[in-house]
Amino acid sequence: MSKEGKFSLTDKIEFPTGTLNTIIAMYQIALSKALGSGSAALTQLILREATKLADEMLGEISFESGSLEELDKTIPELLKILGISDKVEVEKPSNGDQAGKIYVVKIYDSVFKPVALLLAKKGIKFTLSPESFIVAYIVQKVVRKTNPKAKVRIDVEPMKSADEPLVVKVTIR
Amino acid sequence: MSGITPIKKVLTELSKLPKVIGVFVVSKEGFVIESISSREAFDEEALAAMATAALGSIEALGRELDLGKPEIATLEYSGAIVLAYDLGENLVILVAEKGAVLGRLRYELKKNIPRITAAL
Fold it and tell me: Distance from B59 to chain A by nearest Cα, in Å?
């Protein structure tokens, strides 16, 4: 059981993913409608504000974020632990803590894939993609070990078909 | 000043207008591109993200009511005036004390927009 006001990775209930995806899609559609092009800016705020929550959650399972060189292993491992995807590929750049370097993360069969497909059909940018936040969070956390002022920019490519992976690009700034 | 970039030069000039607290160029992704601020406590990252979201909301209102695109947003708070000018992919944000002459700020900001655009 979770303590009041605390999230825990041990919280588990039967919950249709369709319900969760519908809620995420509704939020994203409303956010895009209300903020227009400004919705992309919220990504930075969420990353900043949510870091503590994410740290607490991952601290609970003693997840080690590892080093730059290990990101191609830690990102897939984390997304698997969180139950988001079992198959993730990471293309990591050399000197990956430097500005301009891009990490390309391909997430196959994400539980949130239906949302990405629906939004792509509607021409709406998936700025609230949970996968992208997790990926950006872990990349930023690791990169800041050697480059403390580094920030990250997230780009989620629109999904064209269900056969493709969700592609998240994280650029170091 | 030697080595000053063209964009910094324009922002510095704007920041010297009476009662101006800060001038910022931010991307619509919420990053600060360039800034001049006399208030150290300013959280520039928050300002970038929130101002972009606010202008996005104003843009959405214009679209919903078929009013066209916003060019300049003027926000009057109890303690300050905020002007936000839409440059497409970026924004210019000017923050001034409450007693600043709004007309002059708007005039000077609009007048310098071509220089800012050219410098980006």
Answer: 7
Q: Which of A33, A40, A151 sits opposite B60 (nearest CB)?
A: A33
Q: Domains (ranges, CATH) in chain A?
A: 38-172 (3.30.1380)
Tokens 């909301």 belong to B57
- What pLDDT digit, counting tens, does each position of B44-59 carry? 888 898 899 999 999 9
Chain A from 150 to 169: CB within 8 A of any B CB: 151, 153
Sign of the Cα pseudo-torsion (A47, A50, A51, A55, in order): negative
Helices (H), B17-101: 44-64
CB of A125 within 8 A of CB of A156?
yes
C-alpha span between A71 and A54 (Å, rounded): 17
Give the tens place of pLDDT for each residue, B31-89.
Answer: 899 999 987 777 888 889 889 999 999 999 999 999 999 989 999 999 999 999 999 99
Question: If phi over 0 gives left and psi between -120 and 50 gives alpha, with beta otherwise, what is residue A155?
Answer: beta
For residue A33 the two structure tokens come to 């409608």
Q: Which domains does chain B have, with CATH numbers?
A: 6-119 (3.30.450.30)
For residues A139 and A97, the answer to whether their CB atoms sit within 8 Å is: no
The reported pTM is 0.82
